[in-house]
Amino acid sequence: MSLEGKTEWYENDEMWELMEPILFSEARIAQTVNEVDAIKSLCKIRQDELILDLCCGTGRHSLEFARRGHSVVGVDRTRLYLEKAMKTADEENLTIEFVQDDMRTFYRKNTFDVVLSMFTSFSYFEDHEEQMLVLRNIYASLRAGGRLILESIGKEILARIFNRHSWSEWPHGFILEEREPIEDWSKIRNTWIFIEHNGSVHRWNVTHWLYSGNEIKQMLYSVGFSEVIIYGGLDGRDYDNEATRLVAIATK
Ligand SMILES: C[S@@+](CC[C@H](N)C(=O)[O-])C[C@H]1O[C@@H](n2cnc3c(N)ncnc32)[C@H](O)[C@@H]1O
Q1: I need a surface site. Which of 68, 76, 228, 238 has the fewest CB within 10 A?
Q2: Of 89, 208, 216, 99, which Cα lies nearest the Cα of 148?
Q3: Do residues 60 and 116 share a domain?
């Protein structure tokens, strides 16, 4: 899928591996129970509904939904993450179908009642058309009446809290982050410099789209969704000057 001879940042297995303890820290894993409560309530999920966790990572939402008796399919490109997810599912005796695939190619026509796209998993592709392709796949995969929940950092929020540089310490090293809005605030270019405690230094350029509430809404309507509601957090607050996340709920 990458352009000829070019590996895109989201195809870098070493990056996902080294970032795993940061992306899926204990604190973030611990939030999952509350997030699933909130998703269930915002999307009005019934017990018999089939859920697709798109870009499921190590499966924190898939696993939590399965623990509550829901049927879930988790899709992700990163083999290491899927192996972790499958191991946890096995240990807990949970039945979840995990699929290694790309969000640009995965779809199952009229199959799912709910699609989750959590924690800024939609926005990675350089080309706007590829972004639209992901939305079209999601739309095709939903049954009539099905809902997508798409949760990310909104453009308005990032502009409000913008911080050009930051660093943080983790058990396996330090991460320095540098951020720059590019293409008239269409995208954010992040440079992540990860310094392992053993002295190894890794540098990754992670550029992704930034959408305003209205931009994502128009994109969702344009692929066919009949209703789109934008919230400012999983707690259902307004998308206003105090919003903490951009959460779109789109109904087919
Ligand atoms: C920020 S993580 C979010 C994981 C999960 N949704 C969560 O909330 O914990 C983004 C995920 O997207 C996956 N990913 C990146 N590019 C992808 C692609 N092209 N197709 C499918 N998954 C992809 C990564 O492997 C990673 O697991």
Answers
A1: 238
A2: 216
A3: yes
Q: Which residues line ligand 1 (CB under 6 A)?
A: 10, 16, 23, 55-57, 60, 76-78, 81, 102-103, 118-121, 124
Residues 100 and 185 in one domain: no
What is the number of other CB atoms lying within 10 angstroms of the CB of residue 157? 22
Specify the residue with its C-alpha closest to ligand 1, atom 27: 57
Pocket test for ligand 1, best of 16, 18, 55 (most atoms within 8 A of CB): 55
Q: Pick from 171, 187, 206: which residue ends a domain?
A: 206
246 contacts: CB under 8 Å, gap ≥ 6? 151, 152, 153, 154, 155, 156, 157, 211, 213, 216, 230, 232, 239
Closest ligand 1 atom to Cα of 76: 22
